[in-house]
Specification:
36% of the residues lie in helices and 19% in strands. By secondary structure, the protein is of the alpha/beta class. It folds into two domains: 137 residues, 3-Layer(aba) Sandwich (Peroxisomal Thiolase, Chain A, domain 1), CATH 3.40.47; 231 residues, Peroxisomal Thiolase, Chain A, domain 1, CATH 3.40.47.10. Strands 3-2-4-7-1-8-11-10-9 form a nine-stranded mixed sheet, sandwiched between helices. β10 and β11 form a beta hairpin. α4 crosses α14. The longest helix is centred in the middle third of the chain and has 16 residues.
Length: 386
C-alpha cells in the first residue's frame, strides 16, 4: 500500500450563514482549496474521486450530485459519508484508505452543514420524546451528567471545566474562521445562563453553518502539488453501545480509547509524541475527558491538565488552537474536515497567530452520538510532517 498525504485545504468562515446556500458553501470551500494548492491543480484531470461528509439537516445536499454541481466534478465517483459528529473525519479516513489502496491517486474530501435554516431536524429531533430516550434528556443533559459524574469520581472542579471554555474562546479570537470570537473568564462561564447543570451557555458549542475541503494524494503524486505534503500516519474508528445502562462510569468515552489506541499503533507512536491536537469539544467537559481518553494525562487528571496550562497554546500539548467547537462552531459534516485542515496548517507552520512551536505530529479527534448515547462513535486521525 502507498502512503497518503494531505496536499491542500480550503475553508470558509463559520457562522450564521443565512445568506449562503448549501451549494454556495461547498463551492467557496472548494475554490479556496484550489487556490491553496502550492503548485496548482487541474481539478477535472487530477482529482479521481471525492468523499462528501454531511448529515444534511437542511435537506439541501443529500447526494454526491451536490458536490458535483458545486465543483464541476461530474462523472467522478462521489461517496457520501454520514457517521454522526464524526462524519467529516470518517470521510477523510475513507478517502485516505482509497488512496492508500491505490483505488485512486488524488481524492477530494469535502464536508458541509447547514445547521440553522431548518429548525425541524436537529432541534426538534433533539427534544423529541421516544421510548428509548428519557424525557427531557437532550445532549446537554447527557454531557451534564458526565460532568457531574467526573466531579464526583475525581474531584474535578467547576472552575477546571470552565477553564476549557476560557482557553478555547481565547484561541478563537486569533482564528479568522471561528464563529464566536470573544474572550471570557471563568467567572463569565459560571455566570452565563444555565443549560443543564453544571453546564452553562459558554460550556456549549454554538449552532453553526460551515464547509471545508482537503485534498489527499498518493506518495507518487503528492509532490506534484506541494513540496511540503503532510502524511496521514495513523487512524482509528470505533463504535460503542448506545445503551446507557451498559456505560456505568460515565467518566470516559470507550470508543475514543479504542480508536486512539488503533491510531497510535498504526502510526508507531504514543500520546506523548503528539505536538498539537484538534479534539471534539462540543461541551467543555468533553475536551477535559478526552485528554484522559487520548492518553495525554491519567484518568482523573483532565482538570489539572487544563488548569496548569498543559493544553494551552503555549503548553506542552496544545489542544484546539483553532478555538475548537466551542469557539469555531460545529457544522457537523464540516467539523472533522476543518480539524484536519487546521492540523495540516499547523504541521506546515502556516497557522498564523495560533501557530504552535515546531510541531511534527498532530492529532484530530471526533466523537459522535448514537440514538440516546454520547460518544457512541469515535474517529481519530494522526498526521505527520515527513
Amino acid at each position: 500500500m502507498t502512503d497518503a498525504y494531505v496536499v491542500g485545504s480550503g475553508i470558509i468562515d463559520f457562522g450564521e450563514l443565512y445568506d449562503q446556500s448549501f451549494d454556495d458553501m461547498l463551492e467557496s470551500a472548494y475554490l479556496d482549496l484550489l487556490e491553496d494548492v502550492d503548485h496548482g491543480i487541474d481539478p477535472t484531470a487530477d482529482i479521481d474521486a471525492a468523499w462528501y461528509g454531511t448529515i444534511d439537516i437542511a435537506n439541501e445536499g443529500s447526494s454526491g450530485s451536490s458536490v458535483a454541481h458545486a465543483t464541476g466534478l461530474f462523472e467522478k465517483p462521489i461517496t457520501r459519508v454520514e457517521n454522526a459528529c464524526a462524519t467529516g473525519s470518517d470521510a477523510f479516513r475513507n478517502a485516505s484508505q482509497a488512496v492508500r489502496a491505490d483505488d485512486c491517486e488524488v481524492a477530494l474530501v469535502i464536508g458541509a452543514e447547514k445547521m440553522l435554516d431548518d429548525t425541524e431536524g436537529l432541534i426538534a429531533s433533539a427534544a423529541l420524546e421516544r421510548l428509548w430516550r428519557g424525557r427531557g434528556v437532550t445532549m446537554p443533559a447527557y454531557f451534564g451528567m458526565r460532568a457531574t459524574r467526573h466531579m464526583e469520581e475525581y474531584g474535578t472542579t467547576r472552575e477546571q471545566i470552565a477553564e476549557v471554555s476560557v482557553k478555547n474562546h481565547e484561541n478563537g479570537t486569533k482564528y479568522p474562521h471561528a464563529h464566536q470570537q470573544f474572550e471570557c473568564s471563568v467567572e463569565d462561564v459560571e455566570n452565563s445562563p444555565t443549560v443543564s447543570y453544571p453546564l452553562n451557555l459558554y460550556d456549549c458549542c454554538p449552532v453553526t453553518d460551515g464547509a471545508c475541503a482537503v485534498l489527499i494524494a498518493s506518495e507518487d503524486r503528492a509532490r506534484e502539488f506541494t513540496d511540503d505534503p503532510i502524511r496521514h500516519a495513523g487512524w482509528g474508528l470505533s463504535s460503542d453501545t448506545f445503551q446507557r445502562e451498559n456505560d456505568r462510569a460515565l467518566t470516559n468515552f470507550p470508543a475514543t480509547r479504542q480508536a486512539s489506541s488503533r491510531a497510535y499503533e498504526r502510526a508507531g507512536i504514543g500520546p506523548e509524541d503528539v505536538d498539537v491536537a484538534e479534539v471534539h469539544d462540543c461541551f467543555s467537559i468533553t475536551e477535559l475527558v478526552t485528554y484522559e481518553d487520548l492518553g495525554f494525562c491519567a484518568d482523573g487528571e483532565g482538570g489539572r491538565f487544563v488548569e496548569e496550562g498543559y493544553s494551552h497554546l503555549d503548553g506542552e500539548t496544545p489542544v484546539n488552537p483553532s478555538g475548537g467547537l466551542l469557539s469555531k462552531g460545529h457544522p457537523i459534516g464540516a467539523t472533522g474536515v476543518a480539524q484536519i485542515a487546521e492540523i495540516y496548517e499547523q504541521l506546515r507552520g502556516e497557522a498564523g497567530a495560533i501557530q504552535v512551536d515546531d510541531p511534527s505530529i498532530g492529532l484530530q479527534h471526533n466523537i459522535g452520538i448514537g440514538r440516546n448515547a454520547t460518544g457512541a462513535v469515535s474517529c481519530v486521525n494522526l498526521l505527520e510532517r515527513p
